[in-house]
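Quick bug: Fructose-1,6-bisphosphatase class 1 output formatted oddly.
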Amino acid sequence: MSRVTLSRYLIEQTRSNNTPADLRFLIEVVARACKEISHAVSKGALGGVLGATETENIQGEVQKKLDVLSNEILLEANEWGGHLAGMASEEMDNAYQIPGKYPKGAYLLVFDPLDGSSNIDVNVSVGTIFSVLRCPGECFTQNDALGEEAFLQPGTKQVAAGYAIYGPQTMLMLTLGNGVMGFTLDRELGSFVLTHENIRVPETTSEFAINMSNQRHWEAPVQRYVGELLAGTEGPLNKNYNMRWIASMVADVHRILTRGGMFMYPKDSREPGKAGKLRLMYEANPMSFIIEQAGGAATTGTQRILDVQPESLHQRVPVFLGSKEEVERVTGYHQG
Ligand code: AHG
Ligand code: MN
Ligand code: MN
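Here's what came back:
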């Protein structure tokens, strides 16, 4: 059988699922930008892309050269096509306005241009995470500058989400709300080819992912849960667990999509005002949409992530996601 490229998959989605043509175009443009980022990442020291810049983002994190470059690639690729009303990114304080010389469109694109930036210089997998929302109230027909409010929609409103992982292979994982499809970049052809159809996250697992160095700062339900995982066959769960922590959310989530697992980034007591590390709009929401579409679950410990009403663009949330049975267990511990 002939290979199904991303373009063909999207066209077939338009026929069978009424995926609008402008959404199809948007996904193709994002995929093209990810190919460009993949190319830059793979050059490493030869492309002069390793190392940090002298600037910090709004979260107070030093920006890596690839954070800035990936952000620019995504902005430039997406600003001219007429499919977007605006963009927002981990690397920009405020909403990005579509330049006046270009038409605007119905969608909003939110992204983490380069996830796992602490892994860039050590040649470990990194990625790009994106989320697509509709611009509410036909806001693209108005001439006013696009404010942050337009983006503040719960994750259930996402019309598409995905991530690209730049690892041994470059892959694009995508959901349009009817399952999760995985595409592998064929570098000779220059196209993403469908290689993983209707991915399902196993409901049970014996693998978990958490940054254990923060253990002493966790809240009681997380202490209890991870304590039980570590106790293995000698504890109440009566099963041995294995641990993995890549420190690139894309890579940890990709492993979970592939073979199951439990991913946690809880909030902790170091900064009581800070609800965890990961950002709702461009990390937790797109990943939760993908995980749910693959049959897994995602909560903050107390609430389904996709139901959280965002209050600001760079808001953080605690994240528990992956195999359903384990997510339900730790969520139950939070509920007492
Ligand atoms: P980013 O590189 O986009 O800032 O995100 C990094 C995130 C996420 O990818 C990962 O799961 C987590 O930070 C790792 O945090 P620790 O360094 O605390 O392990
Ligand atoms: Mn990130
Ligand atoms: Mn990032």
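Actually, after a second look the formatting is fine. The chain has two domains: 6-196, 207-335. Closing.
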